[in-house]
Amino acid sequence: MSNQSENSIAEPTLSQIESSQSTRRAAWLRSLSLLLLIAVIGGLAAFSFSPRVSSLDSAKRNVIRANWKEARSEILNHLKQFPDDAEAHLLMAELIVKSNAIAPVESAKTASEHLQKIAGSDPLAAKARLQEARLSLLILEQPAKAERLLRESISLAPDSFEANFLMWKLLDLTGRHVVSDPYFWKCYELSPESERPERLHEWFLSEFYPEIANDSFYAAFQIDSIGKVPASINLLARFREQEPTASFVYAALARFYLDNGKLPSSLEILKEYPDLSKAMQDQFYVSVLFETLVEFGELEKARSCFDQFPEPRSGFTFCRCEGIFFQQVVGDSKAAATSFEKALATWPAKFDWGMMMKLAECYRVSGRNEESTELMARVKQITSTVLTTERTSRLRTELQDLSNPHAASEAASLYRELGLVQEANAWEIIRERFENSGISQGVRSIEK
Could you tell me the CA-to-CA distances from 404 to 1, 107, 209, 229, 239 in Å, in that order? Predict the structure, then answer.
């Protein structure tokens, strides 16, 4: 998770970003690159069919052999007799997408219609919601719809690696890495021991190099950086175009401009959301709007915004905003310190030295000079010796070989120095396993 910003970043309009992608968009729609990505993370073809003998057996064989015309006819005949057969609807969705008979967007919409016919009480419902979520995110580019479907899928099948993995990545892609950790740790728990180093490596990239962590998604979406505006922001602009009711997309775009000192652009984007009352139910949107108003010096508007902060009123995002509210709106350093301390106990705060400096100032104003001095020393240590570009870059290079016990040891040390005990312990287990067994079997090296 990067805490750095470039105040010199050029300020293209979102319409410029969207129009610059139009020619790529046309080429992308003609390609199957997204389907290749789907195959990597689970695959539309990975349906789990029951071994029972049915009239679908011939259709299944024809799908495997890519005999699309015969398979389609057999499935349609089956559905005439059994219109609620979930297995048949799953198979038809697979056929529609894999046959490439129509454009990807139309195939995704048609396949989704079949998936939606599978009732939530059906044993295949979790699989159906997951498949529809993939189509919604990766082809229709509708992250809010995909998130709703993933949450439903996970509620039905909490131990689905594919659903938890895609939720983790969706949150990363939409600027909400700070709430992605439950899904990462579930993926880690569900991964075989031989794959856990790779999961930890992916998490390391998500925290320190988010653009690299998601580059396979950007490549599949045919999204590039434009000048100094990264691919992640250009993808958000496309998401906003395809799903203009996704409030968290507006918030993520506004956060980018806020972090880079472009306050007017941040506020303009937030105001463009079509339904403010709905947006105010989104904690991420409210947090960005609140901080933007504070930075503008619109303290009464910021007060009103904070008063509408949605539940849950806990966790890193809320406690951080509450601290800013007490410090900069109310002028109560003691109350602000209490809120910042709560935020500091959460894992995202371990990277947020800006918030640590706010807390140190609260300590100073409250007469807690020794604590203020200690915290400022901690910030200096993090920024000058712990979390340096040289150190993380070197570690990133070493972690390209996931069978390297020294790299695992270095990763454990970094996380421990940051106070992230869970990550440190996980890397330490990897190191011990490597040292006890030599070069681990089944752990591949990551190519540059």
Answer: 24, 44, 20, 35, 39
Pairwise CA distance, residues 291 & 276, whole Å: 16
Reported as a single tens digit per residue, the pLDDT across 313-364 is: 999 999 999 999 999 999 999 999 999 999 999 999 998 999 999 999 999 9
Rg of the chain, C-alpha, whole Å: 24
Residue type, 15: S
CA distances from 36 to 39, 92, 146 (A): 5, 19, 18
Per-state percent for the chain, helix, strand, coil, to nearest 5:
70, 0, 30
Between 405-418 and 196-208, two packed helices, what is the crossing angle to 10 degrees? 50
- Between the two ends of the chain, the Cα-to-Cα distance in Å is 21
Span 210-254, pLDDT tens digits: 989 999 999 999 999 999 899 999 999 999 999 999 999 999 999
Instruction: Fill in the amino acid letter for 109.
Output: K
State phi, psi for 229 to the nearest 5 degrees. Answer: -90, 120
pTM of the model: 0.87
Residue 195 CB coordination number (10 Å):
17
3 state SS of 417? helix
Q: Is the distance from CB of 122 to CB of 222 less than 8 angstroms?
A: no
What contacts 132, CB < 8 A, 6 or more positions away? Answer: 111, 112, 115, 116, 149
238: three-class secondary structure by DSSP: helix
